[in-house]
Amino acid sequence: MSSTRAAEMTKLLENVHRAVNIGLVNELKVVCERMGIDIYEVIDAAATKPFGFMPFYPGPGLGGHCIPIDPFYLTWKARQYGVDTRFIELAGEINHAMPAWVVGKVEQALAAQGGALAGSRVLVLGIAYKKNVDDTRESPSVEIMQQLHDAGAEVAYCDPLVPAFPPMRRYRFELASEPFEAENLARFDCVVIGTDHDLFDWELLARHARAIVDARGVYRGRNGKVFAA
Questions:
Q1: Which of 3, 17, 108, 169 has a 20 to 30 A CA-CA distance from 122?
Q2: Domains, the chain, ranges and CATH?
Q3: Does 66 participate in catalysis according to the annotation?
Q4: Is 88:19 a contact under the CB 8 Å cutoff?
Q5: How far apart are CA 197 and CA 218, in angstroms?
Q6: Is 156 left (phi over 0), alpha (psi -120 to 50) or beta?
Q7: What's the whole-model pTM score?
Q8: What is the pLDDT of residues 109-136, one digit of tens each?
Q9: pLDDT tens, 175-200?
Q10: Cα separations (Å) of 137 from 65, 81, 129?
Q11: Rg (CA), the chain
C-alpha cells in the first residue's frame, strides 16, 4: 500500500462491502417471506453464476466489531469532508432492525401455541456473534435476549462456548449457559437459534423443542413448529 491511510480504507471497504450486502440480503429475506419464496433457494441458485455474484446469507443482525461499528467511523469521518455515506447508513438501519424481526417471529411461534411473549420461557441458542467462536461483542443474540426480556419473557441462553454471561457494554444478565439436553429443551415455550454452532445437535432440538425460531437457516424448508426468521 502507498500509505497507512490507504491501508485503513482498504479494511473499511471490506467491512462496508459485507455490511451492505448483508443488509441487502436481510431486506430481501423479508420481501421473499411476504411473497412466499425461499430466500435460501434464491441465494443458492444465484450462486451458480460463475462470476459477478458472491453469496451472502441473512441472519438475526450483525455482531463483532468490524461490520456493525467500523463502517460508522468512516461515516463520521466522511461528514468532515462534506460527504453523506448513504449506503452505510441504510445498511446499518436494516441490519439493526433484524433482532426486532426475530422477536416478532417468537411472538408468532408463541401465538401458534396459544401463548404470548409476556410470561413465556424462551431459550436463545448461541450468544456468540458468529458460529464456533466465544466472542459476544455486539452479538445480535444478546439484543434479542434484551428485547424478549423487555417484553416480559423469562429469558435463558445455551452456548457451551460462553458458559457464563460475560460483562458487556450495554447488557447485563446474571445467567449461565443452560445444558443442551432433551428434557431441558422441552421446558421452554420457544427456542431461538441465534448462532448456529456446529456443536449443537439439530435433530435433538427438532425432536424436543416445542417451537423453534430459526434465524440462521438451519432447518431450511421445514415447516410445522419451525418458524423461519
A1: 169
A2: 4-96 (3.40.50.720), 98-228 (3.40.50.720)
A3: yes
A4: yes
A5: 10
A6: beta
A7: 0.94
A8: 999 999 999 999 999 999 999 999 999 9
A9: 999 999 999 999 999 999 999 999 99
A10: 7, 30, 7
A11: 19
